[in-house]
Structures are given as structure tokens and as C-alpha cells.
Amino acid sequence: MLMNENEIKLLNKGELHVHLNGLVSTDVVRELLEENKSDLPSGFDLERDLNILQPTDSLASYLKPWQVLRLVPRSRACLGLIVESAFLNLKSQNVRFVEIRNSVIYLALLNNISVDRALSWLVSEIELACEKHKIIAGLILTVSRGDCAPEHLRSLLSAYENLGRPSTVVGLDLAGNENIESPIETGSLFLHAKDKYELKVTIHAGETGRVENITSAVYEFGADRIGHGTAASKSVEVMDLLKHRDICVEVCPISNKLTSAVNESQPHPVVDFIANEVPFVICSDNPSIHLSDLTKDYIEFYRETRSSQHLRDMYSHQKKYSFIKGLHGN
Ligand SMILES: [Zn+2]
């Protein structure tokens, strides 16, 4: 049966791959940045450069807004405004539960506070917003690929431990430039954290064509889910691996086009995931940067696949693969 945009918007949704800084509305970011305009990188245009609306030539160009997204918030009150804006956006999409990603370390540096304090600010603001908007939320701690990955992961885990392992924190994520190697111990630190704290793991992998990053995410990092994973469709073995281990791919259709992970003229690899029974969920990644929303990602998926059944089943898939415990009945 055909579905229209309004029906899609009204579907109950879960969101399993969204970055806090990409979910806060651009207007809020712009207002917060206006207060400290002198810190902006030279040539950065607040009207033009906070959004990505056309496919970029590389992931690095896609990440341009992050040059300034890491300059806010400069106080707990401003963090509160950011989280509030993010939750309003989720509410407008009928999102019932969400896993929000954030790397927390920049929050500590920017506000000259400890990582423990930064994590406690973020957890508290998310918990307040959950209560207010009646949306269930978990926090995923993101670590960037590269030399500092082990150090950052250690300090995030130590903050998590010092705060008494808050139940709002549900998982760990590795993100950033996939061509950059991280120190060899990074994978074993993820595995250790999984084992010790029962945190779940998702890894941004195979977004820029490197299928080997998906296998390493599974074997070396213990990935429970894969972010993007578009390169998986290049390998029947990797699609089999994901299927047989029941590892869910977080498919972000609009983001994939804007980063050029998927060429505009090519079918989206989710078509191969469906054909090969690779589990997947639809997510929005950075909707406000795209001046978009989760409904538009559903519509883009629908345009590619014409499958309304997948859209109707999506909420139960999102619950099944969520890192948040006890979602059944929601
Ligand atoms: Zn992402």
C-alpha cells in the first residue's frame, strides 16, 4: 500500500544514529555563535557554512560545520538550550526513543571543566529533556579516530565510572576520518569496555568505501551495530557476516548522498541489504545540518525502495536493535 508524507511523519519512530550537534536547530547554533563571533575561523560564513545542502566532494568538506559546532555551548545554560532544541526536533518527528551521540571531551575543554563534570552536565540535561518531552533517551559516547582515541576513551570511561555508571549512557561509538589509523589498542579498549560495563558498541565504518573497516569494527571492536556501512554492499562475505551475526546497519539515506558515500545517480546500497537480509534501521545522522528531518530520510528510503512494509516495520526494528533496555511496550 502506498504511503504519503503525512502518514510517514505520523509513524512512531526510534532514532539510533543522530549527533547532538547535528540535531540542534541551525538558528539556535547561530544565535549562540553570534555571542562569540571573534572566535570563528576566518572566512566562515554563519549564513552559508552551517548547513550542507548539496553533495560534497569528501567527508572532510561535509564536516565543515563542525569547525564551529565545537565552539558551543560555553555554559551549562547554553547546553540546556541545545538539548531542548534537539528534543523539540525529535518531538516534531514523532520520535519515541532516541540514542544521542556526543563526544563530551570538547564540552570539557570549552568550558574549562573536568570530563566528569561535562558528562554530568550532558546526562542531566538529557534526563531533564526526556522527562519534559516524554521521549526516552540514551547517550552514546563518541570517540574520534586517530592518535588520541585511546586517551579520550579512557577519560570518558573514567568519568562514566566516577558518576556511578549512569543508566542514560548506553553505548560507545567511533567516528571520524576512516583513512586515519587509530592506535592498535583502541579496539581492545572497546572490547574491554563492553565486557566490563556492558556498554554496546557502534562504529562508523564503511562510509567512505573501506569495506575492511566494517570487518575490523566487528572483529576488533565488537560492533553491535555499524554506522552507515554503505561499503558492505560491495562484498557478499561482509553482508553475510552482518546477517549471520545479526549486526544492524544504521542507514542514513540523506547524509549518504551529501557525503557522497552514495553517488546521486546510483541506487542506495540499502537495496542490497534488503536483498541479502542484512538488518538495518533508518536514521538521520545530522538532520539540522541538512535542513532536514527523520521523516525526509524515511521518504528518501521509500523513494529508493518503494517498500511501505519496511517503513511500517521500522519502529519494531528500531526497538529490537536499540541499545536502550526495556523498550518493549513503548
Ligand atoms: Zn554519524
From TrEMBL:
* Pfam families per UniProt: A_deaminase (PF00962)
EC numbers: 3.5.4.4
User: What GO cellular-component annotations does this UniProt entry give?
Assistant: cytosol
Recorded GO molecular functions are: adenosine deaminase activity; metal ion binding
Q: Which GO terms describe its biological process?
A: adenosine catabolic process; hypoxanthine salvage; inosine biosynthetic process
**Which UniProt keywords are present, listed alphabetically?**
Hydrolase, Metal-binding, Zinc
Its needed co-factors are: Zn(2+)
**InterPro entries in UniProt:** A_deaminase_dom, Ado/ade_deaminase, Metal_Hydrolase
What sequence ranges are listed for the domain Adenosine deaminase? 13-303
Root EC class: hydrolase
PANTHER family according to UniProt: ADENOSINE DEAMINASE
Name the family the entry cites.
Answer: Belongs to the metallo-dependent hydrolases superfamily. Adenosine and AMP deaminases family.
Q: Name it.
A: adenosine deaminase
